[in-house]
Amino acid sequence: MSQIAILLGLLLGLALGITASVTGSPGLIAFAEGVAPFGEAFMRAIQMVVIPLVGVTVFMGVAKISDSRKLGRLGGLSVGFFWLTTLPAILIGMGVMKLALTFAPKVVPPTSMDSVASDLPGIIDFLINLIPRNPFEAAAAGSLLPIIVFTVLFAAATAKLPAEKSAPLLSLAESASDVLIKLVYWVLWTAPLGVFGLAAPVAARTGIAMLQNLGIFILAVVVGLFVFMVVVFLPAVRFFGGMSPGRFLKGTVGSYMMGFSTTSSVASLPITIKEARQLDLSPEVSTLVLPLAAAINRPGSALFQGAAVIFMASVYGIPVGPAALVGAVLATFLAAMTVAPVPSASIVTMVPAFNAVGIPLPALGVLLGIDRVPDMFRSGMNVMGHVAAATTVHGLSNKDAEGPI
């Protein structure tokens, strides 16, 4: 799959739709609406794999967390850092996007409100509905939040089994994940045509205001990521890791640029380990924290997803009430911790958050088309977060060693 090809598909779709909207040509409008089946087929393919993909990645993510706790305090501190930085990332993303939307032009919702889930449950009903009566029924209905809750509990119970009984389940989940990742690659090869089919009818209905909104969205995400770095990572490194922000920033330039250019935490792991040594972090800490972070730590993705929920809710004219907001934050928190190692996985795993708010799934196609730029910035911040985690755990573990046992 080529990100350039996807971007080209988006641009062609937007160009067709905007031209149809500006000229009012019946032929162009009919053409823009006529390519919608390509987008529908693409979204069906995404939906086909998203439930099993989210299920197995959540299962393995929880299993890895459970295993890390057995390694002692270092693992516990690492996971605690991941959790405590993911939540503010989501909230910062939502807050920055809410502010940015005050400068965005209004757009006509590309979907009628009849196709949007308008009757959202109250907070109590929402919490009760998180517990599925039948996990298979919930999966068939596409209710991903109850599936995630069931999977988390199932994985936690699996971790309590003897190794000889839990190993086959973990092996099966790993094999299933490999198969589903391969399937996602196949689906994403059709993304340029699918994104074209999604963007053209949307742009035909909304006009040029949609293009302006997408630019504001990208800018807000980038600004939010650097705000997050300043208010979360740097204070953690300074007050808990005992390292000056200047030294940390200078020592993580290579890690950030590697994550930025490759958009991969795993590919960036060798240079993060190297820079951790140059920052005088103990090998005991870095060799545990950095691989674990590469597997499950995605604060940049969490911020992007939080921003995307608020942005798309605004585009579709959907009010985000307290229950929907709680659902979106919970879904984003769990999904961001278990983003699969596939291109634009942060987009695919947004389905639970979109469902919680009532955002139509075709919105994913619009985000997928512009994802390359935000993906570079959030991946760079993810990788910087891995080194920040190692620095913080190193500082806390040293303080514990100096204190009373």
Fraction of residues in β-strands: under 5%
Number of strands: 0
Quick check: average pLDDT? 80
CATH fold node name: Proton glutamate symport protein
CATH class: Mainly Alpha
Radius of gyration: 21 Å
Question: Given the helix and strand composition, which structural class is it?
Answer: mainly alpha
Termini distance? 53 Å
How many separate domains make up the residues? 1
Which architecture per CATH? Orthogonal Bundle
Low-confidence stretches: 112-121
Summarize, please.
The chain is mainly α and 405 residues long.
Characteristics:
single chain, 405 residues, mainly alpha, Proton glutamate symport protein, 79% helix, 0% strand
Q: Could you explain how this protein is built, in words?
A:
The chain has 20 helices and no strands. With 405 residues, it is an all-alpha fold. The chain has one domain: Proton glutamate symport protein. Helix 10 runs antiparallel to helix 15 and helix 13 packs parallel to helix 20.
Q: What topology does this entry show?
A:
Elements: H1 3-23, H2 26-34, H3 36-70, H4 73-100, H5 123-129, H6 135-140, H7 144-159, H8 163-189, H9 191-206, H10 209-239, H11 245-251, H12 253-262, H13 269-278, H14 283-296, H15 299-315, H16 322-336, H17 345-348, H18 351-357, H19 363-369, H20 372-402
Helix pairs in contact: 1-2, 1-9, 2-9, 3-4, 3-7, 3-8, 3-9, 4-10, 4-14, 4-15, 4-16, 4-20, 9-19, 10-15, 10-20, 12-20, 13-14, 13-20, 14-20, 15-16, 15-20, 16-18
